[in-house]
From TrEMBL:
Organism from which the protein derives: Brevibacterium casei S18
NCBIfam families recorded: aden_deam (TIGR01430), PRK09358.1-2 (NF006847)
GO MF entries: adenosine deaminase activity; metal ion binding
Pfam families: A_deaminase
Required cofactor(s): Zn(2+)
Protein name, entry field: adenosine deaminase
Enzyme Commission number(s): 3.5.4.4
Family, per entry: Belongs to the metallo-dependent hydrolases superfamily. Adenosine and AMP deaminases family.
Example of a GO cellular component annotation carried by this entry: cytosol
Domain Adenosine deaminase: 18-358
A single GO BP: hypoxanthine salvage
Top EC class, one word: hydrolase
Source species, domain of life: Bacteria
Keywords carried by this UniProt record: Hydrolase, Metal-binding, Nucleotide metabolism, Zinc
Length: 368
């Protein structure tokens, strides 16, 4: 179970820090060796059949600088997640890889509508993923490690199916905590597919008290964030890095636009994913990525891997890059992690207990 995350030294003290992963796609976190085995079982042809070569193919494809091409890599991951057995295995390993990364709370976001080719229906695939997540949590517990996970049910913004997916999320959310569903999201290509096109779904979710996060401000600009916040009333923003387009700040001095000021003043959490953003042409370098400037201005930034396979990353690696290349301190890492657990789609008492019993003591025990 103890796999050192990609790109991380096995003795890096950051591995020992307690972490929260809010923006972490299930179908973007498969192990290459698992993909190869599952692909052989279902007759799917992969670009490579050696684990190292396959990982390298994903990295090269994801480094195109184009979100649409980046998203095309998911054709291979979703292809091996069309059976109950495949979904269970992927979900279980996803949890175990979180544990190896030091994550104590994670939300697995994924789009059930992309996993029906094997004859399963929407409820079947949600149940299969939950079985896998539960198995991963149980194995971690047997090994003396604690982790809690939830599902974020995601609709694809380029499809005309968001209401059905919203109803799916509501249906499973109403089963209670055992269903594992904690929230809803829309993902996919932003340009040409605004959040407002799915307003009926968001209205139904709000009326059912289902928390919402929306991919915005990644490929599209501040108008995407504006719609997510003011039209669809999202609780969190997936990515949101392009909020900087609504501010004129130089060396900490300048002015925020009305949207940026609102996001700051309301402390709407930003699920930032530095390495992934560099792959889709945001930021240029880790040092120049908007996350550091946003942190310094007081925005509720959180640190996330987005897609562990495509970016060859983890929360630990993202933190290490921020420390080494952007001058972050352990205090900065702790502050962003507090933001994340505060923003988690969990009951307040659970968040407060995790903060007091896991996060704060855990950071106190480690020196980065």
């Amino acid at each position: 179970m103890h796999r050192t995350p990609a790109g991380v030294a096995h003795d890096d003290p950051i591995l020992q820090l307690p972490k929260v992963s809010l923006h972490d796609h299930l179908d973007g976190g498969l192990r290459p060796e698992t993909m190869i085995e599952l692909a052989e079982a279902v007759g799917h042809e992969l670009p490579a059949t050696d684990p190292e070569a396959l990982a390298q193919w994903f990295a090269e494809s994801a480094n195109s600088g184009d979100l649409v091409r980046y998203l095309e890599t998911f054709a291979h991951t979703t292809a091996v997640m069309q059976t109950r057995e495949g979904l269970i295995r992927v979900a279980k390993e996803w949890v175990l890889d979180q544990v190896a990364d030091g994550v104590f709370y994670a939300e697995a976001r994924w789009a059930p509508e992309q996993h029906l080719a094997g004859g399963l229906d929407l409820d079947d695939v949600v149940d299969a993923v939950q079985e896998g997540l539960d198995a991963g949590v149980a194995e971690a517990s047997a090994d003396g490690r604690f982790i809690r996970v939830g599902q974020i049910i995601t609709a694809m913004r380029q499809a005309d199916n968001s209401m059905a997916i919203a109803e799916l999320a509501i249906r499973h959310r109403e089963k209670g905590a055992d269903s594992g569903v904690v929230g809803f999201d829309i993902a996919g290509p932003e340009k040409g597919f605004p959040p407002s096109a799915h307003l009926s779904a968001f209205n139904a979710l709000h009326q059912a008290y289902v928390p919402v996060t929306i991919h915005a401000g990644e490929a599209a600009g501040k108008e995407s964030i504006h719609e997510a916040v003011t039209v669809c009333h999202t609780q969190r923003i997936g990515h949101g890095a392009r909020i900087v387009e609504d501010m004129d700040i130089v060396d900490g001095e300048g002015q925020l636009g009305s949207l940026a000021a609102w996001v700051l003043d309301q402390q709407i959490p930003l699920e930032l994913c530095p390495s992934s953003n560099l792959q889709t042409d945001i930021g240029g370098t880790i040092a120049s990525h908007p996350i550091t400037g946003l942190k310094d201005l007081g925005f509720a930034v959180t640190i996330n891997p987005d897609n562990r396979l495509m970016s060859g990353t983890s929360v630990t690696r993202e933190m290490r890059l921020l420390v080494d290349e952007a001058g972050w301190t352990q205090t900065d890492l702790e502050w962003a992690t507090v933001n994340a657990i505060t923003a988690a789609f969990l009951p307040l008492d659970v968040r407060e207990r995790m903060l007091d019993e896991i996060l704060i003591p855990g950071f106190a025990r480690v020196t980065v």
